Amino acid sequence: MNDPRLLTEYFKRCFVAVDGLWFMMVEKEDSFEKALELDRRVWGILPKIQARKIKELFKMEATGPEDLVKAFKFKLDAEDFISEFNQEASHLKITIKECPWLALLKKSKREHLAEKISDAICSIEYPVFAREFVETVDFKMLSRRCSGDSVCSFVFTIP
């Protein structure tokens, strides 16, 4: 039987590769702006699929703030982020110390595009994911490594 860790690494690599490849193909055929617009649309849907799969994996039936935390930890860990969570009353603050997407952009010498990509994707991906657990959650980005900050940090406010 195949080692589950090897299977995980294989599929993770394929996920990352296909994300970058389709983007670069659209960029080559049309423009960076067109690729980014399509990427925005993809990341407006993909987090819903991810959240629903996590709900299924963890057998989450009724969802709320606790499930949001558990799901976000799982998502970020699965995607190789280094992150910290701080929950106080109705606020959940997530701090990202290391971002695998930024690391890939640096490795491929495309770091100069990171801020534009972050503007388009992070501001969509995280609230879309969160609203699968708490529909009325509010999202605010506080800092971004792609903009020169030392960490990415964002806050979800749960009414």
Describe the structure concisely for a colleague.
With 159 residues, the chain is of the alpha+beta class. Helices cover 56% and strands 17% of the residues. Strands 1-2-4-3 form a 4-stranded antiparallel beta sheet.
Would you identify the CATH architecture? 2-Layer Sandwich
Fraction of residues in helices? 55-70%
* Percentage of β-strand residues: 15-25%
Number of strands: 4
- Which class best fits the helix and strand makeup? alpha+beta
The ordered string of helix (H) and strand (E) elements is HHHHEEHHEE
Examine the coordinates and then state which fold CATH places here, giving the name of the CATH topology.
Muramoyl-pentapeptide Carboxypeptidase, domain 2
Mean pLDDT: 95
Q: Give the full name of the CATH homologous superfamily.
A: Trafficking protein particle complex subunit 3
The overall number of domains is 1
Radius of gyration: 16 Å
Globular, elongated, flat, extended or rod-shaped: what is the shape? globular
Query: The biggest beta sheet, please?
Result: 4 strands, antiparallel
Intertermini distance: 47 Å
Number of DSSP helices? 6
Low-confidence stretches: none
Mind telling me the CATH class? Alpha Beta
Order of strands in the sheet with the most strands? 1-2-4-3
How do the helices and strands line up, and which of them pair or pack?
Elements: H1 4-29, H2 32-43, H3 46-57, H4 65-78, E1 82-88, E2 91-98, H5 100-107, H6 114-130, E3 138-143, E4 152-157
Antiparallel strand pairs: 1-2, 2-4, 3-4
Helix pairs in contact: 1-2, 2-6, 3-4, 3-6
Give structural attributes:
4-stranded antiparallel beta sheet; 56% helix; alpha+beta; 159 residues; 4 strands; Muramoyl-pentapeptide Carboxypeptidase, domain 2
